[in-house]
Amino acid sequence: MLTPARTAALRRLLSHVRYEVLPTSRIEEIVATNLPSGSTVTVTASPSKGLEATVALAERLAARGYDVVPHLAARMISGRTELAEISDRLRRVGVTTVFVPGGDADPVGAYVGAMDLLDDLAALDNPFAQVGITGYPESHPTIHDDITVQTMWDKRRHATQVVSNLTFDPNVLGGWVRRVRARGVTTPILVGLPGPVDRAKLLTMATKIGVGESTRFLAKNRGVFARIAVPGGYDPMRLLTRAAGVLGSEEMNVSGLHLFTFNQVAETETWRRDQLARLGADVAELGRSAR
């Protein structure tokens, strides 16, 4: 049985979530149907669709009352002029948080990585209260570990959030969080976690989209797709439970979850609510056992 401390940690994490979606034609209605207004929704950047698809969807979701976090993939933005235009559009619709990955596309202009864009955003008197950057518990498929560690350190002066990329090993996740803190990076961490996804739907999404930060990650990492999609290969709650001791520690400053939905928003939200209900039952059982 879960201890009271681990149960409390899991409930807190599952109560502070944001949902990552890909900018497809149907996703706006899927979000509106399955998530209440006020939910935090992040919109990935798709090299095949262009950043306009991300910004336009962010505008529409913001108009519906969602707390939207667009991904401003640095390599998809030509330079400071375009960055200023995008920032102004997002500011006008009330967007207060952005996520800045480097992106996997070939650079279209001046930015070869996230740091270049972050520097320009600061020079433009950054209008966003929250700025997220990527963290890598697992090795990046194309960037050496030493570089990802150094760039996180360099970006800390611009960032207010670190969002971890995918891992399926609770020991790797916990060890990475500890190492980040040991290096003196105190920025709050959001743990990237794939929700429970349907294998057939995931395969269809990967085939149709083929882009976006999450899907490109899957395509580049052999075995990751199998871990998510094969029955019994991946259980998000098992991962969270095993890592809860570290993630729930106050000094680790893990503020919530970044849920990779692969546009399976309904399934992800149902799973989240079910887990919270189960944890509530566990709390009641713990209370009875203590009497």
Would you give an account of this structure?
- With 291 residues, the chain is α/β, with parallel strands linked by helices.
- It has one domain (4-290): TIM Barrel (Alpha-Beta Barrel), CATH 3.20.20.220.
- It is built from 12 helices and 8 strands.
- It has helices spanning 4-15, 27-34, 51-63, 80-92, 114-123, 145-155, 170-182, 199-209, 213-220, 224-229, 236-247, 265-290, and strands spanning 17-21, 40-43, 67-70, 97-99, 130-135, 161-164, 189-194, 254-260.
- It has an 8-stranded parallel sheet, covered by helices on one side.
- Strand 5 (130-135), helix 6 and strand 6 form a beta-alpha-beta unit.
- Helix 1 (4-15) runs antiparallel to helix 12 (265-290) and helix 7 runs parallel beside helix 11 (236-247).
- It is globular, with a radius of gyration of 19 Å.
- The two termini are 16 Å apart.
What is the CATH-assigned architecture? Alpha-Beta Barrel
Instruction: Please mark out the parts with pLDDT under 50 across 5 or more consecutive residues, or reply none.
Output: 208-215
Largest beta sheet: what is the strand line-up?
A: 3-2-1-8-7-6-5-4
User: Which class do the helix and strand fractions yield?
Assistant: alpha/beta
Q: Give the biggest beta sheet.
A: 8 strands, parallel
- Continuous helix count: 12
Gyration radius, rounded = 19 Å
The helix content is: 40-55%
Mean pLDDT: 86
Which CATH C-level class is it?
Alpha Beta
The end-to-end distance, rounded to whole angstroms, is: 16 Å
Q: Would you count the extended β strands for me?
A: 8
InterPro entries: FAD-linked_oxidoreductase-like (IPR029041), Mehydrof_redctse-like (IPR003171)
Family: Belongs to the methylenetetrahydrofolate reductase family.
Pathway: One-carbon metabolism; tetrahydrofolate interconversion
Keywords: FAD, Flavoprotein, Oxidoreductase
